[in-house]
Amino acid sequence: MSDHARPGPPQANPRGLTSAEVAERVARGEVNDVPVRSSRSTADIVRGNVFTRFNAILGVLFLIIVAVGPIQDGLFGFVIIANTAIGIIQELRAKQTLDSLALIGEAKPTVRRDGRGVPLSTSELVLDDVVELGPGDKCVVDGTVVEADGLEIDESLLTGEADPVAKRPGDPVMSGSFVVAGGGAFTATKVGRQAYAAQLAEEASRFTLVHSELRTGISQILKYVTWMMVPVALGLIVSQLYVEKHDWREAVRRMVGGIVPMVPEGLVLLTSIAFAIGVIRLGRKQCLVQELPAIEGLARVDTVCLDKTGTLTEGGMDVTELRVLDGDESYAAKVLAAFGACDPRPNASLQAIIDAYPDGSDGWHCTGTLPFSSARKYSGATLREAHGESRTWLLGAPDVLLPPGHPALAGVDEQGARGLRVLLLARATRPLDDPAVVDGLAPTALVVLEQRLRADAGETLRYFAEQSVAAKVISGDNAVSVGAVAAKLALPGAHSPVDARRLPGGRDEMARALEGGSVFGRVTPQQKRDMVGALQSRGHNVAMTGDGVNDVLALKDADIGVSMGSGSEATKAVAQIVLLNNSFATLPSVVAEGRRVIGNITRVSNLFLTKTVYSVLLALLVVIWRVPYPFLPRHLTLLSTLTIGVPAFFLALAPNRERARPHFVRRVMRFALPMGVIAGIATFATYLMARHHYHGAGGLDAETSAATLTLFLISMWVLAIIARPYTWWRICLVLAMAGCFLVVLVTPWLQTFFKLRLVGTEAPWTAVGIAAVASVALELVWRRISRRVD
């Protein structure tokens, strides 16, 4: 039933719906049933791993081999089945981790039911529910405001307009917007898929494949491989049928043997597994990766912008001193106590004041409020005292409320230099709704707050410094105070803090100032966004951390947004990574995991693409020379398993601390092309030598065995290069693969199964000699490549 056709209450009951009314709406299907998913569905995972371009190619080739036999030449089909199963299992494990973590970090708006506010899952909301709002809360459905107490809502994620919109009863609110100041409540008028931004809200916490240089690069490589495969495969088919026209079954087997190794079938699989295991590892550390490539993205970051409060410092504060400027201390304490009682959702500073002055304001009443805003840097309240007189008070940043040079500011910088936070309590002569309310203030007292440093913040900053990642502390607090906090954590450049109000407006000029400084204070939410953009314009990969509503715009624009689990719903909605344990110290783990993924996938890509290059080259040489293809599918399945498949699996999951570097495709192809060309030419040279050496029955098998020996030795040298720097387990891995091949060569039934048997001594030792020369060439090429810097 449509909204306009269903009779409903013209005005919401401020007590909210009753249980009976909720049940009635559930029965009608008027529930907020938009599925909020943190990962791909099981069906998507299975489909994504099974129905791939190369699985289709290899599947057809496998069926061809099944038709012509023998089954030994169809081993690659079973390898594909095993690899696909492994990929599905790992992604399902990652999905389970993501889903459980997303449940922990799920938004639970406060909804009025039966006269009281209860936190509910967004999927439990029904039409006409009364939803309460406070600073940082996200509007999860569309609605109409029924209560507003200085309510200001940011709709920039929907409209692109950065300025907050003041809301009054009767005004609409849209899902996807969030509260920046004040509080209130609204009635849900559209739920589920009818909501204006339902899809936006769903995508905010959903598994997505956003831009990833790794994924994009691999897709680009696979596209090139496909273009190369088609003409080469056609030429190979024609040549083998022409050469082996007396035995078409042998021609088909040789043709399939030439096409199968061109397919880098395990590359996409190992990339997915590496990302999935990264999610699982980080999940154990209470880190929710809402978008998988964020692991990669943070590893590429060279600049981290940190919000001080909640990141370097803990959320709580303590009042250490009340310095009275006018009047007596007991009166100032009463004002502060009454001021704190005005705000049902105090921020950390006001909560510290409430804790220090919990009572003492008996008979005082709040008759008007101006909520705190990061843009204003102050809040206000109109208080009626016990004897009936009303006065308007402001509480906020002294250097914002007072003009430069004011006597009351004399001790503020001194306190800030000690890392303390100072708020000014001042009496206003103008009403709260006057745009010039800060004019003519009468300073009453300075409230000195001590911020609690996170125990792990210093160690984390040292880690970033060691990894050549620049840390920029961006805060709305006084620059001197922020600098003092950063100095306690030994942040380079902390002793030269910059007041953001003096930053140049131009993007280039701002970028130069940001590159030269480390600590910036009095930064507005819009400035945070501009600072991120300025750094990006200079080629920096920027990560932004934060937990407050004032960080949302910058988090959204940064390359990687990181939110604390205790942060506002708005910040968690736009961040790619949520630290559910609120520990800034988890970030090094994310960086390390990203570097492991990037470094290892680059390694295994070198292996897979080297195989593709030499396979294409061998096929071309066979077509040009009009000779039988030297290998059967079983030979290349054996080689691929021992020199690529098994080693790549271990290398893809190994520890790796290499710093992430750009230009993935260029670096991989720079390695794979020369290595593959050397391997292909050397193998074909051995094959031609063997063709002149062996004659008569069984000659082709002996030629194949000699060529296989050369290709295996060269491939092992490529593996030995890629496995560097050596550790005990990498050396054992290389030796184990060599040992497995030796077992095949000396075991009679394996010789028969794989159709491998070295005949005589001259040709096999010549094959070894050619492989040795090729390995020297590989080593020289690698040394030249490793000296080049992108």
Automatic annotation (TrEMBL):
Record domain P-type ATPase A: where: 109-203
Subcellular location: Cell membrane
Matching InterPro entries: ATPase_P-typ_cyto_dom_N, ATPase_P-typ_P_site, ATPase_P-typ_TM_dom_sf, ATPase_P-typ_transduc_dom_A_sf, ATPase_P-type_domA, HAD-like_sf, HAD_sf, P_typ_ATPase
Pfam families: E1-E2_ATPase, Hydrolase
Phylogenetic classification of the source organism: Bacteria, Bacillati, Actinomycetota, Actinomycetes, Kitasatosporales
Top-level taxon in the UniProt lineage: Bacteria
Transmembrane segments: 50-69, 224-243, 255-280, 604-625, 637-656, 668-690, 702-722, 729-751, 763-782
UniProt source species: Streptomyces silvisoli
The protein, known as: Cation-translocating P-type ATPase
Keywords, comma-separated and alphabetical: Membrane, Translocase, Transmembrane, Transmembrane helix
Membrane topology: Multi-pass membrane protein
